[in-house]
Write a structure and sequence with these properties.
Length: about 300
């Protein structure tokens, strides 16, 4: 009675509800979809095939992200103008990412590692998750050594150069407190959208640091605006994966039972934390994801 079949695998559904609660909390707290943890967890801990994990994650993140975006919008944390540009680029990129996933699923074979046959798709996805999470975590850790105060905004050399980019048209974003060429956020979102469709993530764990460190958006606005664009990015990706039969509605349902509650708790806490502390907590969560991926890779390479 406590197990359900998902993607041909028997899964303990109360654990899915608990996982959904955690992911929802992260969605509200950081303005991220939580897919950077959810997808690996479903694959590594529950054995759900990657295509099903990716497609189902996107549907769950779309629902949870919608609640998070609405909550942040009511608090005035969403830069709608910037969010629309990000959403346009992310939605386009999401369809491209889905096509890449389809090709990998059809063409990727198996690898023999340490005498074991491992699906190439699993190895590629784990390495991609590891590289991205490590890059984001390192950028936040480096900020810790460069800044002395607790501030809501990080002004990097790269963000200064982007703001000076004289590529018309140029736009101002009042809520975010910055201005730059129209093509800067669109280009950033296109790349994030591709990762959304490929990896089953809302792109928030990449978008959040990009908004803060690359575009120079304040931390609070980055959380709210990131949640806003996630709705569009995951919506497009979810439809694409649903058409491919990669969505398990029972899996989505169990995750949503926990995540709807978690997201409301996360939004409330996000307004009680200073920007610098919020970013450091985000790096800590990424570290947990990195450890999970390393554990999986160790098993695939025969270390454990």
């Amino acid at each position: 009675m406590l197990e359900v079949t998902i993607g041909g695998v028997q899964v303990f559904w109360p654990a899915l509800v608990g996982l959904g609660l955690l992911i929802g909390f992260l969605t509200g707290l950081f303005g991220v979809g939580g897919g950077f943890l959810l997808t690996p967890c479903l694959r590594i801990l529950f054995g759900v095939p990657y295509p099903v994990a990716v497609g189902s994650d996107l549907v769950q993140i779309f629902c949870t992200g919608s609640v998070s975006a609405f909550k942040h919008w009511r608090r005035g944390d969403v830069d709608v103008k910037l969010g629309v540009l990000l959403a346009a680029g992310a939605a386009t990129g999401s369809f491209l990412g889905k096509e890449i996933m389809s090709v990998l699923q059809q063409e990727a074979g198996s690898l023999r590692i340490a005498g074991r046959s491992q699906p190439m798709l699993d190895v590629v996805m784990n390495l991609l998750f590891l590289a991205l999470m490590a890059a984001v975590a390192v950028s936040i850790i480096r900020e810790k050594t460069q800044e002395g105060g607790d501030t809501d905004r990080v002004d990097t050399v790269f963000s200064q150069r982007l703001r000076k980019l004289a590529l018309p048209p140029r736009m101002s974003f009042e809520t975010s407190g910055t201005s730059f060429s129209l093509w800067v956020p669109v280009g950033v979102a296109l790349v994030v959208g591709m990762l959304t469709g490929l990896m089953g993530v809302g792109g928030g764990f990449i978008m959040f640091p990009l908004l803060v460190y690359v575009l120079g958006v304040s931390t609070v606005a980055a959380v709210g605006t990131g949640a806003f664009q996630i709705v569009f990015a995951t919506g497009a990706g979810a439809m694409a994966h649903f058409s491919e039969g990669h969505v398990s509605l029972p899996l989505v349902g169990f995750l949503l039972v926990g995540s709807i509650t978690g997201v409301q708790l996360g939004v409330r806490l996000s307004h009680r934390l200073a920007g610098r502390r919020l970013r450091r907590y985000f790096a800590g969560v990424l570290s947990l994801g990195i450890l999970l991926i390393l554990y999986s890779l160790a098993g695939q390479f025969g270390v454990i």
